[in-house]
Design brief:
- The complex is a heterodimer.
- Chain A is α+β, with helices and mostly antiparallel strands.
- Chain A is built from 16 helices and 15 strands.
- In chain A, a hairpin with a 3-residue loop joins strand 7 and strand 8.
- The longest helix of chain A has 33 residues.
- A five-stranded antiparallel β-sheet of chain B has the order 4-3-7-6-5, sandwiched between helices.
- The N and C termini of chain B lie close together (7 Å).
- The chains are: A alpha+beta, B alpha+beta.
Chain lengths: 539, 385
């Protein structure tokens, strides 16, 4: 009998333990994937700061060709090319040089885009005002249409390769260096571009620090980890070109304010891979959510960026007939007679849009058919899954700075206007000098060979700047509930799909809750009657 | 009140595991639905996903169990007594009326339970599993296949959750409608369900019916029958007392179809009844040849003397499993069988005795079966008062 019971109990125990182990197995397996000590995060194609070996750069001060008193910047370029043969050809194939590239725009075909052609809702455009705008061109002498893009001597090597920190282009000098610059000294102290070289233009676009991007500004010269985990001096101390890798002077990475095709991009994935997180759940998000969305929770974290630019209020002069400057409490201009009214903001929460890497642009020849005018539009939607679409990749949710503006357009031809803004002289139709929109418009459009009716007004515009920089420390990355929340989540306005935790069917919830409440109510009533009846019977 | 073993170990494990998993899924699921914040969204999802997998494993085991044990038949819907069951819950229960349906071995659910449980197993849970795994794995572009939108998947999954929630409420409440408020839950924990005498009787009869059917199918190839039947009968009678079982016509019908011999002999010792199997074993051609004859006819003298002692005990009201005896068939040959003898009581007096005989030719099989089945029968019928 004992044996019989023993075997019986053993049989039950074995059955129980087998089944239990199966269940515990699934739970334990989850935990095992988490190592106790975190290694450095996994990256590809990247050398950690601690592993970096300073590759010796040639000491240019030893080269005879540079040991001369340069009186002309062109001569410096010639000296560079003397050794760095053919590099001029590489440069002349880049958009840094041409400010133009031909790209496919949806519905418009192959179109020359780039800084030379595309309008924005900041300073509007380059045409007619080149001599001041080309302070940021990697060349010498682009003051008007006569500039020779095929002349190697016009290349400005120094603006990117100066490692002395003393090089500076002159104001309104069409890209020539300021006369105070010691060209020989600079030429003997050249090297890899540092963040200062890139920043001098890319931080200052739009006429001031952080005006345009919102995520690129002088604070990146010496950022804390909190500001930018990659470029932090205390951290990895990465320079711009660590991500924007360069081959034959072609920099990886592009700006959708000016370009449209999904190519030659600098991505997070090139180092971090497409599955950098320990959690598969989070990695899966990368299929439809850009890294930037969670890892750039706010932008303009140090200095403010311009959010609104209203040109329509420009032109109010003070009592002496002089242009005015007014600043807000943070010291940012909120009114300039030459430019109009601005709104600045810092620690801005991005807006979120679907984006598949393809952009479109409102060309100066395009008829205005939407208000606000979409200066550049980011293509994408939830249903754009990347197959048979314009892009091979599915659209992802992307954090974007949206810059809103009001700028001049032709009320008769329904096109945007490129006014002439800058001139060294009065009476040259430049708005910033003469404050006459009609004259400036006529001059600007005439310069481009485009019609102007003589009737203008101001129209609302929007421009989209996908955010990429100032990646926050991982502790500050967005968490689930920032988006997966019922009300006022980050994605509250991105409504073309079902987002768990945010969305529900109102009627289903009412029905479901009613069903549960009725069940509870029903059993409560039923139970109460039973108790009541049984008590009565017992009495 | 006595207790009867109703819920087997796996069944109980499966039930409580399912209850636990559904509870976890509901708590985490409604957190994912943003109904409240409790564990944190990511943790809620991780637990929800792990629980879903555990549930899937449990379902695979449960399906296996249901089909290997034949328990799936419990869920075949029926309209028999459906109205009665509904009206019991609506009115009868308040008046203290008896449950319209009894718990039988192969019919342990009332018609409402059959319907609701089938709905859960065949519709709600599969829908939840399928929509849940679609939710889990086809929410992003997957090579080759992707759902256009998660909307309907989410809606259906949420609807299923509400249905399960409402079910849990009603289900938990209805456990209180057994003999005592907690006896149904106790039964699901221990396996032993409290029943009144009538219910126990019904339950045991149904069990023996099933046992007979099984034995028949297991020993189909052999003419012999194991003494499982004997021991089942003896134990069954012990547990309910008296000969209520043997009087049950359903039971007699079941016996008749198994090849087990049945006889009834008056207290004076004359055959009153014998079934076809009995007649075959004794090699008679019809019952007429034997009715009215004294049972001495088919015994050797020594055997008769021994048997008489047993019969006398039976006539005092005892049921006796006599063990193996030798029979003299019509043609004078001998045969062996086991015999169980029980008194037939009318108005408190023993008027006759009856019993079963089982041929013991395939003794080895019978012994093996005995060992196996006895265990189960002991377990099942052991009174736990």
């Amino acid at each position: 009998m004992c044996i019989i019971f023993y075997t019986l109990i053993m049989r039950k125990l074995i059955l129980l333990s087998v089944i239990l182990s199966l269940f515990s197995g699934t739970l334990v397996a989850q935990e095992e994937t988490e190592p106790t000590e975190l290694p450095k995060i996994k990256v590809n194609n990247y050398t950690w700061k601690t592993d970096r070996v300073n590759s010796a750069q040639a000491d240019h001060s030893q080269f005879d060709v540079l040991k001369q008193e340069f009186t002309s910047a062109h001569d410096v370029t010639e000296a560079c090319i003397y050794c760095h043969t053919k590099r001029d050809e590489e440069i002349m194939a880049t958009s840094h040089w041409n400010w133009e590239r031909t790209e496919m725009l949806a519905g418009k075909g192959e179109v020359p885009v780039g800084k030379k052609n595309i309008l924005n809702n900041f300073c509007i455009g380059v045409a007619g005002s080149e001599a001041t705008c080309t302070r940021c061109h990697i060349g010498y002498g682009w003051k008007d249409k006569s500039f020779d893009f095929n002349e190697p001597r016009n290349i400005d090597c120094l603006v990117c390769h100066d490692n002395s920190g003393t090089y500076e282009k002159g104001k309104g000098m069409a890209g020539y260096p300021d006369p105070s610059v010691n060209l020989s000294y600079v030429a003997q102290n050249v090297g890899q571009p540092q963040r200062e070289n890139c920043g001098v233009c890319h931080f200052w676009g739009g006429g001031g620090n952080n005006v345009k991007h919102g995520d690129m500004e002088i604070a990146l010269l010496e950022p804390s980890k909190k500001l930018d985990v990659h470029m932090a001096i205390e951290g990895e101390d990465m320079s711009c070109v660590d991500c924007h890798v360069t081959e034959k002077h072609q920099m990886a990475g592009k700006l959708y304010a000016l370009s449209s095709e999904n190519k030659n991009r600098a991505t997070c994935e090139q180092c971090h891979t497409e599955a950098p997180h320990k959690s598969k759940l989070i990695n899966d998000h990368n299929m439809r959510v850009a890294c930037q969305t969670c890892h750039i929770p706010t932008y303009a974290k140090a200095n403010s960026t311009k959010m609104v630019w209203d040109w329509s209020t420009a032109g109010v002069l003070d009592d002496d007939g002089k242009p005015m400057h007014e600043s807000d409490a943070d010291g940012n201009h909120n009114y300039l007679s030459i430019k109009g009214t601005f709104v600045w903001d810092n620690n801005v929460t991005p807006e979120y849009l679907w984006f598949n890497g393809v952009a479109n642009h409102q060309l100066i020849t395009d008829i205005i058919d939407t208000i606000p005018v979409q200066m550049n539009s980011l293509d994408g939607s939830y249903n754009d899954k990347g197959k048979n679409q314009k892009s091979i990749n599915p659209s992802k949710i992307w954090p974007v700075k949206v810059h809103r503006g009001k700028q001049i357009y032709d009320t008769e031809y329904k096109t945007l206007i490129q006014p002439k803004l800058w001139s060294p002289n009065a009476g040259d139709s430049a708005y910033w000098v003469d404050f006459d929109w009609n004259e400036a418009s006529a001059a600007g459009m005439n310069y481009l060979g485009l019609p102007y009716s003589g009737n203008y007004d101001f129209v609302e515009t929007e421009m989209y700047w996908p955010l990429n920089h100032m990646v926050a420390p991982k502790e500050e990355a967005l968490s689930c509930k920032d988006c997966h929340t019922r009300d006022n989540g980050r994605l509250a306005s991105l409504n073309d799909f079902y987002l768990p935790g945010r969305d529900k069917n109102k009627y289903l919830d009412i029905f479901g809750i009613a069903m549960v409440v009725m069940a509870a109510f029903g059993v409560a009533v039923h139970g109460a009657i039973r108790v009541f009846v049984s008590k009565k019977n017992n009495v | 009140m006595k207790k009867v073993y109703v819920y087997k170990i796996f069944e109980r494990f499966w039930h409580w595991m399912q209850a636990l998993l559904i509870f976890i899924l509901l708590v985490t699921g409604f957190e994912i639905h943003s109904t409240y914040n409790l564990l944190g969204f990511e943790l809620a999802i991780k637990i929800h996903d792990a629980t879903a997998w555990a549930f899937l494993v449990l379902i695979v085991f449960a399906i296996f169990w249901h089909f290997t044990t034949g328990e799936w038949r419990q869920y075949i819907p029926t309209t028999k007594l459906l109205k009665e069951q509904v009206s019991y819950y609506l009115t009868g229960i308040f008046k203290g009326a008896p449950h319209p349906t009894k718990k039988l071995v192969y019919n342990k659910f009332n018609p409402l339970q059959r319907m609701i449980y089938l709905g859960l197993k065949a519709l709600v849970i599969p829908v939840q599993v399928i929509s849940g795994f679609l939710y889990l794995y086809f929410n992003y572009p997957i090579q080759g296949f992707e759902l256009g939108s998660m909307y309907w998947v989410a809606i259906i999954h949420t609807l299923g959750a509400f249905v399960l929630f409402a079910f849990v409420i009603a289900h938990v409440y209805l456990t209180t409608t057994a003999h005592k408020p907690l006896s149904a839950i106790k039964a699901m924990v221990t396996g032993w369900e409290e029943m009144d005498d009538e219910e126990i009787h019904e339950h045991i009869v149904s069990d023996i019916e099933v046992a007979l059917q099984k034995t028949k199918s297991q020993l189909q190839s052999s003419e012999g029958r194991s003494d499982i039947l004997d021991s089942a009968l003896v134990e069954a009678q012990k547990s309910v007392g008296g000969n209520a079982i043997l009087k049950d016509t359903r039971f007699r019908d079941a016996i008749a179809s198994t090849g087990v011999g049945y006889f009834c002999i008056s207290k004076e010792g004359y055959y009153r009844e014998a079934n076809d199997a009995w007649i075959n074993l004794y090699k008679y051609s019809s019952a007429d040849e034997i009715i009215g004859q004294h049972y001495k006819l088919s015994r050797t003298e020594e055997d008769f003397a021994e048997l008489e002692v047993t019969v006398n005990k039976v006539l005092q009201g005892k049921t006796i499993n006599h063990g193996e005896v030798k029979r003299i068939c019509k043609d004078g040959t001998f045969g062996y069988h086991t015999v169980t003898i029980a008194p037939v009581v009318v108005k408190g007096d023993v008027v006759a005795f009856e019993g079963f005989i089982i041929d013991t030719t395939d003794r080895r099989i019978a012994e093996k079966e005995l060992l196996k089945k006895k265990l189960r029968v002991e377990e099942k019928l052991k009174s736990k008062e």
